[in-house]
TrEMBL record:
<keyword id="KW-0732">Signal</keyword>
<feature type="domain" description="EfeO-type cupredoxin-like">
    <location>
        <begin position="8"/>
        <end position="92"/>
    </location>
</feature>
<protein>
    <submittedName>
        <fullName>Cupredoxin domain-containing protein</fullName>
    </submittedName>
</protein>
<dbReference type="InterPro" id="IPR028096">
    <property type="entry name" value="EfeO_Cupredoxin"/>
</dbReference>
<dbReference type="Pfam" id="PF13473">
    <property type="entry name" value="Cupredoxin_1"/>
</dbReference>
<feature type="signal peptide">
    <location>
        <begin position="1"/>
        <end position="22"/>
    </location>
</feature>
Amino acid sequence: MFKPAYLVFLVFFGSVSLTADASAEEHIVIILESAYFPERIDVQVGDTVRFVNESGRAHAVSSSEGLWTTDIIAARAETTVNFAPEMAGRFHGWADRLIEGRLDLTRAPLTN
């Protein structure tokens, strides 16, 4: 059985981590046969981007500057990446043709 002091520790520190994670968002980018939807999203450091492949064929998403790439995403599958500042900018992949999208880094909202 847990001692009361241990429970207070878990509750206190658990709530701190939940608060820190509460500001992170998940963004979904759908991979279509000839486009990404949405084509452009605004993200912050700590957000996640989930690429959902609805194109009907395997697909990888890569930075247009060559800084990052996903693993190959099978048709009807998905992958999630944690956004980092170096991921900002254009990304692309091949479906029926070259398709492009953009991840724009936004500032975190100011808090009082």
